[in-house]
Each structure stands twice: as structure tokens, then as C-alpha cells.
């Protein structure tokens, strides 16, 4: 019996890389996407292969929906050539960009970019990939704790993530006849290079977040990677249409 296959957007770095690593340790084969960091993408493929798994990377700009048809065709080719499969099992919509601009100052151009990457992208990418997702598969959309609590400078980003959470519930409902589940993972603040490494590299912000978190620290990529892998593990297929916050208990 062949391994499950996960397609993870934004898998070359940060949360996407950790998700790929954790799933690969569970025996899941990986198709990742990268935007521009081809070297990092190749390094992750090699890491997974060295550990005995299978992996491939495909370039994708999640903010350019006009390219989704060509991307889906490329994924179909990779499935056949690399995995001897016609469909994959798990879709993780993870790729994103950061924004830290006050509501009074954000431009329409930045708002539009966030919309394309975080909401329109996952919406139509998932639609385009539906024929390639196996019946009984699972979708995980990455949201943010910022869709529950408010942090100044994050309004546009949080609005898009709120839309992702609504989308998840509709996917769970409308894809149920194919036994495809859909859930949201909502990370809290994580120490990555996201947003220029703001949380990781700014001691005062790091301390503030840690002090507001029940478990007393800022999150790490592996906290989220492990959570997604656990959600996609055998036995959790009955979880559907849910928002699961992975934040250590921030702002309770």
C-alpha cells in the first residue's frame, strides 16, 4: 500500500517546512511549494529523501490565481512521475506573507496583496486542486490567533484569516459527500523569519507575548508542525469543520 501524500504550500521555510518534516516522520510523502527560495526547497527534499521518505517541490505564487491551472497540471505530472499516483491525500494551505501596518495607514495595494495571498489564493487553489484530492482526503487551512484576538497593526491580515476560517467550514460542508474533511489550525505568535523575524528577533515583543501566554513562552515552528501532523494522523478523520488554536494559551 502506498504512503499518503501531502501537498503543502510554502513548504521551503518556517511553518510549512516544519509541517513537511513532521508529516514525513509519520511516513507521509511530501509535495511542497516554494515561491522564490529554490535552494531551501531543494535542501528540504534532500533531507526528507535522506531520511527514507519521498518528496518533490513545485514553484507556486499563491497570490497569482491565473497560474493555478498550470500548477495543477504540474502537480499531476509530479504525482505520476515521482509517486506513481493520480491523486494526493492531504492539502495544507500554509503559504503567506506578513503585514504590520496600522488600520489608518494601510494602503489598498497592501490590502489587495494580503487578499490575493491569504484568501483568494487558498480559495481558488483548493478549487483547482479538487480533482487531484482523493476521496476521503483532508484539508488543513492555516489561520492565525489574530482572527480571535486583536493586535494593533494586524487588521488586514486578520480579516483574511477570518475569511479562511469561514471558508473552512464551508469546505467541510460542501465536500462531505466525498468524505473530505476540512479544519483550521490557528497558530499564535511563532519564532520564525515571518514578518522579518519580528517575534523571534525583537526581545521586548517576545517577552510581551510570552507573558500573555499561559505556557509562558512564544511558540516554535515545531509546535505547529507537530499539531498539523497530529491532526492528519490516522484516527483523526472524524474531526471536521473545526478551528484548533495552537498558541500555548495566549490571551485567555
Give a verbal description of the structure.
- This protein is of the alpha/beta class and 252 residues long.
- It has a single domain (5-190, 221-246), classed as NAD(P)-binding Rossmann-like Domain (Rossmann fold).
- Helix content is 42%, strand content 17%.
- It has 8 helices and 7 strands, in the order E-H-E-H-E-H-E-H-E-H-E-H-H-H-E.
- The chain has a 7-stranded parallel sheet with strand order 3-2-1-4-5-6-7, sandwiched between helices.
- Helix 5 links the parallel strand 5 (133-142) and strand 6 (181-187).
- Helix 1 packs across helix 8 (221-231) and helix 4 (108-129) packs parallel to helix 5.
- The longest helix is centred in the middle third of the chain and has 22 residues, at 108-129.
- The termini are far apart.
Radius of gyration: 17 Å
Tell me, briefly, the overall form.
Answer: globular
Strand content: 15-25%
CATH superfamily: NAD(P)-binding Rossmann-like Domain
CATH architecture: 3-Layer(aba) Sandwich
Walk me through the topology:
Layout: E1 5-8, H1 14-25, E2 29-34, H2 38-50, E3 55-59, H3 68-83, E4 88-93, H4 108-129, E5 133-142, H5 155-174, E6 181-187, H6 198-201, H7 203-211, H8 221-231, E7 243-246
Parallel strand pairs: 1-2, 1-4, 2-3, 4-5, 5-6, 6-7
Can you give me a brief rundown of this structure?
The protein contains eight helices and seven strands. It has 252 residues and is of the alpha/beta class.
Amino acid at each position: 500500500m502506498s504512503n499518503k501524500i501531502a501537498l503543502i504550500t510554502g513548504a521551503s521555510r518556517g511553518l510549512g517546512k516544519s509541517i513537511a518534516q513532521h508529516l514525513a516522520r509519520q511516513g507521509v510523502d511530501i509535495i511542497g511549494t516554494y515561491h522564490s527560495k529554490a535552494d531551501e526547497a531543494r535542501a528540504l527534499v534532500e533531507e526528507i529523501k535522506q531520511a527514507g521518505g519521498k518528496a518533490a517541490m513545485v514553484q507556486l505564487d499563491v497570490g497569482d490565481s491565473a497560474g493555478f491551472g498550470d500548477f495543477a497540471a504540474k502537480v499531476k505530472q509530479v504525482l505520476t512521475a515521482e509517486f506513481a499516483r493520480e491523486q494526493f491525500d492531504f492539502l495544507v494551505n500554509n503559504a503567506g506573507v506578513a503585514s504590520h501596518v496600522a488600520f489608518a495607514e494601510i494602503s489598498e495595494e497592501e490590502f489587495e496583496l494580503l487578499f490575493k495571498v491569504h484568501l483568494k489564493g487558498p480559495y481558488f487553489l483548493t478549487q483547482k486542486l479538487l480533482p487531484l484530492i482523493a476521496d476521503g482526503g483532508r484539508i488543513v487551512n492555516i489561520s492565525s490567533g489574530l482572527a480571535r484576538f486583536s493586535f494593533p497593526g494586524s487588521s488586514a491580515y486578520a480579516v483574511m484569516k477570518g475569511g479562511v476560517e469561514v471558508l473552512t467550514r464551508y469546505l467541510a460542508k460542501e465536500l462531505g459527500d466525498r468524505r473530505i474533511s476540512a479544519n483550521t489550525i490557528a497558530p499564535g505568535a511563532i519564532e520564525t523569519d515571518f514578518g522579518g523575524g519580528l517575534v523571534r528577533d525583537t526581545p521586548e515583543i517576545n517577552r510581551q507575548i510570552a507573558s500573555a501566554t499561559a505556557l509562558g513562552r512564544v511558540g516554535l515552528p515545531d509546535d505547529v508542525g507537530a499539531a498539523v501532523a497530529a491532526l492528519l494522523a490516522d484516527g483523526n478523520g472524524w474531526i471536521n469543520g473545526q478551528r484548533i488554536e495552537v498558541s500555548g494559551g495566549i490571551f485567555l
